[in-house]
Amino acid sequence: MAALEAEISHFADPDYFTDEQMDYAKNQLEIGEIQGQEKPSQFVHTVSYWWTTGGLDYYLHYLDNLRAVNREDIKNYLNRYVLESTTSRGTWRRLTTLRRSVFREACK
Q1: Longest dimension (CA), the chain
Q2: Among residues of the chain, what percentage have pLDDT more than 90?
Q3: pTM for this structure?
Q4: Which residues contact 89 (CB under 8 A, 6 or more apart)?
Q5: Sequence-ordered alpha helix ranges (H) in 1-108
Q6: 48-86: b or e for each residue (b if 16 or more CB lie within 10 Å)?
Q7: 3-class secondary structure, 41
Q8: Which of 2, 10, 55, 59 is the residue whose CA sits 20 to 30 A from 99?
Q9: Tally of structural domains, the chain
Q10: How many helices (H) and strands (E) does the chain have?
């Protein structure tokens, strides 16, 4: 658990990922989105998902917004929802505790 928390604490470091890795990740997300639009059955599910969760307007501008994501956006997200979130840290701790107790029970 300590190693995981140590790694997570570095997620927002400026050198945690390269520009090439960020471009690759955005490219993969874009490819997946475009491929999902090629199958009508998948496209219906995708549109209905975005319509109910983020709004149709969000979906219609998703690729443009994806391309515009920068390091500062990622850092802000990580700080707000991962690094400074007691909920996400608490969830990791509860999962680790659960895993340990399951392991102890299995070893009896």
Answers
A1: 55
A2: 38
A3: 0.70
A4: 5
A5: 2-8, 19-38, 40-53, 56-60, 62-68, 71-77, 86-107
A6: eebeeeeeeeebeebeeeeeeeeeeebbeebeeeebeee
A7: helix
A8: 10
A9: 1
A10: 7, 0
Q: What are the backbone angles phi and psi of residue 39, rounded to the nearest 5°?
A: -100, 115
Look at residue 82 and give its three-state secondary structure: helix
CA distances from 106 to 17, 94, 95, 97 (A): 38, 18, 16, 14
CA–CA separation, 101 vs 107, rounded Å?
10
Model pLDDT for residues 85-98, shown as the tens digit of each residue: 766 666 666 566 66
Length of the chain: 108
Query: pLDDT per residue over 24-60, tens digit each?
Result: 999 999 999 999 889 888 889 888 988 898 888 988 9
> Which of 76, 87, 71 lies closest to 18, judged by CA?
71
**Structural domain that includes position 24:** 2-107
